[in-house]
Amino acid sequence: MNAIEINNLTNNFGQKQALKGLNMTVPVGSIYGFIGENGSGKSTTEKIICGLIRLSGGSVKLFGKDYTDADVRAKIGVLIEAPGCFQNYSVWNNMLLQAANLSIKNPEQEVVKVLKTVRMEGAASNKYKNCSLGMKQRVGIAMALLGNPTLLVLDEPINGLDADGMRIMRDVLLDVTKNHGCTVVISSHILGELEKIATHYGIVRGGKMIREMTAKELDESCRTYVALQTKEMSKAKAQLACKYSRVEEDESGYIRVYDAEKPEDIVTYLYEKDILVSEIKTAKIGLEEYYIDLMNEKGGR
Amino acid sequence: MENKFEHNGFGKRLSSMLKVDFRRMFTMRTFYIIAGACFLMPILILTMTTMFGGEDSMAGTQPPSTSVTTQAEPMFENTWQIIGSFSGGAEQDTSADTNADPAAMGMSMDMTTMCNINMLYFGMAVLVCLFVSEDFKSGYSKNLFTVRAKKSDYVISKTLVCFVGSAFMLISFFVGAMLGGAIAGLPFDLGTASIGSIVMCMLSKIFLSLVFVAIFLAVSVAAKERTWLSMIGSFAVGMLLFMMIPMLTPLDATSVNVIMCLVGGAVFAVGLGAVSGVILNKTRLV
């Protein structure tokens, strides 16, 4: 069974069509990285899943039931844009309010547990409005985790988190999926972080899903390249461009050769041109580069 | 992996929603400010009007040689005036024909009709508008409506909680009025009314507040986070219905008044509750 099945989803904001027949399949127990440019329809899709905005057409099923099913919806944890907390309430009171909303038995214990999980137990008495951006984001995550949800919908949850916060976030998401069978849909522009945890990806553009794949499929479709450094970078780049079809210099000062089969061939070739290679390695492109390549491939850039 | 979902019946859903709303109302500073104002207002009105109402000095507006001091009618002659007027006019005739001239029935919009417990119905608009708009402003509506597919839970709970809040306001005002009357030294002469009719009057007012709460709630869910819009809308609708308050809830109210207000309140709460539910279902919640 799939946790989420979306077919031909459309949504109109007046004249503007935000979603143009989006399809999406999220398997149960997966961490689904939902990627796309700003305004591509990620947040709109997530809001529809959570029942916060209406769909104009298509269907959304959660665990095989319609997304309006009250019993299924009662088990969704959500963090969309910013945590929904009252500014003048303490973190503790905000959490207790959400615990009451979820009809949690022993709410105090449960709140203590989730606050510990996100390492916010020391700040429980702080007024929410006095919390930093990162702390607010942690509160939002803790709130989403209340009541052992079966589906977590997180929109940009990593924004504002420090390195420790990001690590906690990773650990929490891996724990809830592996040990509690929770399914996570997470959208983020920080693709490097997403790559560390996601088991499935969905790439959306212009209100349509342009690719869905598993992490394994992504790994297989990510090309390997050879990265090298010499003392004569521009000369080496020019020489390599004569032999290989795609040669680029990356931000870290390496020349990347994408269609080379063996690194030693490059070393030999450059040696013949009186260029000495000081460092050479093979690597794979990551999610970020894959995404950028895909976007370029699909046009519009 | 099979996911089993616990069935949440209406009762369970409503009770959890009520818990949230009652917790919110009783931890909301604004609620205590409004309730406090309701308590203090009659004390201030009764003491101030009695203190300054009995004597109206014309000195300063006339030449010194012609300075006169006139005796003005005090605004309140009886403590009960701040709670309501008699259905049968100033002479407290409880058997008056309800089709009679409103002025003759004591229903004319004089200062005592305006400056009494009935003005709390506008205070209720403030309470409902702030209570609802804060859900949307804070983003709490995201948490709320994600786990609540049935919008009727929200509407029923908000109606009930705001109704209780309104009852608190009316009772606070009543207690304040009694205290204010005692401080101001105004008589507590019941006339043709009795303690029973005063109780009926208060019950009528409390049940009538359901009508107003339902209206304010519908306006507030339509306006969502725009507090100013919901307040303006609520005040406008409140103004239109203001005249019916003294008519339906006189000091000499009987069980008929109570039943009328209860039935009216229930009808409005159900009807406008359905409207509020439709608004929530058909519009964006974030």
Keywords:
heterodimer; A: 301 residues; alpha/beta; Rossmann fold; Alpha-Beta Plaits; six-stranded mixed beta sheet; four-stranded antiparallel beta sheet; 11 helices; 37% helix; elongated; B: 286 residues; mainly alpha; 10 helices; 2 strands
Compact description:
Chain A contains 11 helices and 14 strands.
What does this molecule look like?
The complex is a heterodimer of chains A (301) and B (286). Chain A has 301 residues and is α/β, with parallel strands linked by helices. Chain A is built from eleven helices and 14 strands. In chain A, β4 (57-62) and β5 form a beta hairpin. In chain A, α3 crosses α4 (107-117) and α4 (107-117) crosses α5 (133-145). Chain A is elongated, with a radius of gyration of 23 Å. The model of chain A has no long low-confidence stretch (mean pLDDT 90). Chain B has one domain. With 286 residues, chain B is mostly helical. Chain B has ten helices and two strands; from the N terminus they run ααββαααααααα. In chain B, α2 runs antiparallel to α4, α4 (120-138) runs antiparallel to α6 and α4 (120-138) runs parallel beside α7 (195-223). Chain B is elongated and about 70 Å long. The chains are: A alpha/beta (301), B mainly alpha (286). Chain A binds chain B through residues 1, 3, 28-29, 47, 50-54, 63, 68-76, 78, 80-89, 93, 96-98, 100-103, 143, 150, 153, 181, and chain B through 1-3, 5-8, 12-13, 15-17, 19-20, 23-24, 27, 29, 134, 138-150, 281-286.
Q: What proportion of the residues of chain B form beta strands (DSSP E)?
A: under 5%
- Please report the distance between the alpha carbons of the first and last residues of chain B: 32 Å
For the report, how would you describe the main beta sheet of chain A?
6 strands, mixed
In N-to-C order, the SSE pattern of chain B is: HHEEHHHHHHHH
Strand numbers in spatial order across the main sheet of chain A: 6-7-8-3-9-10
What is the helix fraction of residues of chain A, given as a range? 25-40%
The CATH topology assignment of the largest domain in chain A is Rossmann fold
The CATH class name of the largest domain in chain A reads Alpha Beta
| Number of helical segments with 4 or more residues of chain A | 11
What's the structural domain tally of chain A?
Answer: 2
| Total beta-strand segments of chain A | 14
Strand order within the widest beta sheet of chain B = 1-2
- Given as residue ranges, the uncertain stretches of chain B (5+ residues, pLDDT < 50) are 55-62, 64-68, 90-108
What portion of the residues of chain A fall into strands of 2 or more residues?
25-35%
Parts with pLDDT < 50 across at least 5 consecutive residues of chain A: none
Tally of individual helices of chain B: 10
Radius of gyration of chain B: 22 Å
